[in-house]
Design brief:
heterodimer, A: 100 residues, mainly alpha, Helix Hairpins, 3 helices, 78% helix, elongated, B: 641 residues, 3 domains, three-stranded mixed sheet, 25 helices, 3 strands
Chain lengths: 100, 641
Amino acid sequence: MVPLDYYLVLSAIIFAIGVVGVLIRRNLIVVLMSIELMLNAVNLTFVAFSNSLGSMDGQVIVFFVMAVAAAEAVVGLAIIISVFRHRQSLDPQEMQLLKW
Amino acid sequence: MVASTATVAALDVLRWIPLIPLSAGLFNVFFGRRLGGKTAGAIATAAVGVSFGVALYVFWRLPATGVFRDLWYTWIESGSFQVNIAFQVDALSAVMLLVVTGIGFLIHIYSMGYMAHDDGVARFFIYLNLFIFFMLLLVMADNLLLLFVGWEGVGLCSYLLIGFWYQDPKNVIAGNKAFIVNRIGDFGFILGIFLLVTELGRQGIWTLDFTELQKHVQLITPAKITLITLLLSVGAAGKSAQIPLFVWLPDAMAGPTPVSALIHAATMVTAGVYMVARLHFLFILAPYTLPIIAVVGAATAFFAATVALAQNDIKKVLAYSTVSQLGYMFLAVGIGAFSAAIFHLFTHAFFKACLFLGSGSVIHALQGEQDMRKMGGLKSAMPQTYWTYLIATLAIAGIPFTAGFFSKDLILWKAFEDESYGLWSIGIITAGLTAFYMFRQLFMVFHGSLRADDHTKAHIHESPPLMTVPLVILAVGSIFSGWLGAPEYLWGSVWDQWLQPVFGGGHSAEHAPVTTELLVTAVTLAVVALGIYLAYARYGRAEAAVPATAGGTGLYRLLLDSYHIDDAYDRLVVRPFTAASDWLARVFDPGVIDGFINGVAKLIRGFSLIWRETQTGNIQHYLIGFLAGTLALLFYYLRQQ
């Protein structure tokens, strides 16, 4: 039996990788993938706790998260395609229309 | 009230005396133009006529020592302090009431003729009615605040009517001048009211009612009373055109002539005298104020009379004459002869209104010409105007058995009796000057040969009955109104008995011998006769009547320009003031005021310029901020546990 701590540490590492990816990557598709990484890191935490506490609640929530993540990926990709059609670029640093 | 035995009776009809002219004025505001000038004038005149009728009824019902009161409603209430919209008629108010509505009625009739060819007749009558309303408010108010409302209101109407022909900037400037100079006086007046209220309030009595004031006025220290009365007399001097605030009245002649007669001769300008008489209980407690008022009055009477000697404008002569006669009233008030002051106010209203309306009739006939050098010989063309003018001139000069004789002589006699020989001699000299300038005017306008051009000559006509009938009535008044106050050696004074409950009496106890009184009168008459003779010698004889058109001696020019007082005010007050305003507008306002406002804006803009650098528009930068915030919150909550 792997101790709970291991899962949590792994999950934290994956989450941090996701955060850094969102913040620094120059490609919107990779940014979207990083968001998936963060969501799945959280999922891992839920499942680990569910297993260790003997409760099914965590696993139920994971299903919800996966459903939402799927929807999010669909909408996100649609937006990305639309943006790419307009600007021929996916670099988030070039998307500064909201600037003063 | 006023006297301890006075009986107070409620009489609800009082409120209608001011309300009828007000409602007629309001009616004309909405319908006057549509109905046309004639109808509007008739409505306005009828309203004042009805007011006069009601005033007569009130006068007839008023018992000798009684007071009528009409409490309409409470206007201001704060703790024990209460100001009512309430009217009060005692002997003094009744006199003023009859003067205002009676003379006002005659002048309204006259105006229907005089203003017939004007475009703004309806507007004119609206202003006149409004004036009558405010004037009645002033004389009938039972408290100082309501009096002040009327006081300000008549000032407003005076301004509106002086600038009635507003297309000419000169008239507008004259109106402004009257308003501003009056405002200086009113400033003193209202400060006086404030001081009076707070001083009495300090003794626990918060009131503005004349009755209550009279009851408790002894509680105030004499020093404070002196200050209060001095401030109040500044207001009176402004309204009644006394030195140093008289400058507006000669310029006020820019208004239509009926206005000069009603407002600037018979009623409004006497409000200052009325106010002092109404507050006589306050003034007699101030040992220093009354002599100052007397000296100012005498000085004004003399000064204005000398200026009137040199004027060539028919209305300017009458304007300075009014200032001079108001000086007499102030002189009378100043020596404590309140009853005599009101008596002169009463008779003056008749003969000066008659003179002004007569001059209006002349101006009307001469197509608006006001220069006496271009008049002359109108006696035959305008007999009714001439005879009424002559009677009024005799009255103001103080020829025996005319109104002016009785009232002016009474004032001079009171001054003599008071042993104020200096004031008395100034009064005597002024009487002589008055006779001179009035007869000079009479000769220049009505005698000799006509000096107008041919076009004007062709149009000369006697005025219509609408204008001459009021003249005749006023001329009759110019003689008989004085008979009410005859001296003891003739048939005695009804007047003094009438006003005695208001002002109190007691002078009659130690009465000077009749021979002294007759001697004093004889001196006056001699000086007056000399004045008339000199006027006749210089202007009355055939062709000598035309005075030098330009130049003349230095003294003549000094008088013509009224001692350059206007010029001095212009240099000492108006120009420094405008220069200061100009500096404020050009330097202070853009530099300091705008500088401050713009400085604040610039400062904020500067901060914003720096701060906006954080708003890069790059979503990843915002996310860093989001992350930092989340971590900070997380850290904070974890620390808490």
